[in-house]
Design goal:
single chain; alpha+beta; globular
Amino acid sequence: MEFLCYHRDRSGSMPLRHALIEAHWTYMDGFAKELIARGPTFDAAGETCTGSVHIVDLPDTAAARAFAFDEPNYQAGVYRDVLLRRWRNTLGRTMWEFPGGREDGNRYLVIGLGEGEPVDLTPPTAPDGQDDLIAYGPLLADDGTTWVGTAALVRAPDAATAAAVLRTPDRYADIEVHNWPFGGRPTAI
């Protein structure tokens, strides 16, 4: 079962987040095979962390809750809340398999919190044929079938273009767009 876990930072938690970076990475190392995507989110200026997203494939809801709430930053109080939803990987790949690589272009997390009949269940196709979707799929209730929104990781020139990945914006109660880079331990060059 795939899950999207978005931990939202509480105000003023950057010093604690920095102090726990190794503990966080070590914790995530334990889920390396299960991770579909990961990385921090930042404010519009790209200077302050606003959260941390992890898309992960785990056996069940109990394992997903343990993943979210045993995480060292959560335990220490870095995060103010957690969005944890079932998710469906419509692209069938991980962020590491994204053909655009880790560095090229601006990256965003887009979360649309839906209401009513499901929309945007299938990934959009870019007009120029270029694949800018890193991850895409519906957010689902615990039953795995009830649609509650859509989430995507996307490469785009700006936040407005990223938000447009949700083709029916009027069907969402709220759409969040966050600056997002590929996460994980830095690699040696």
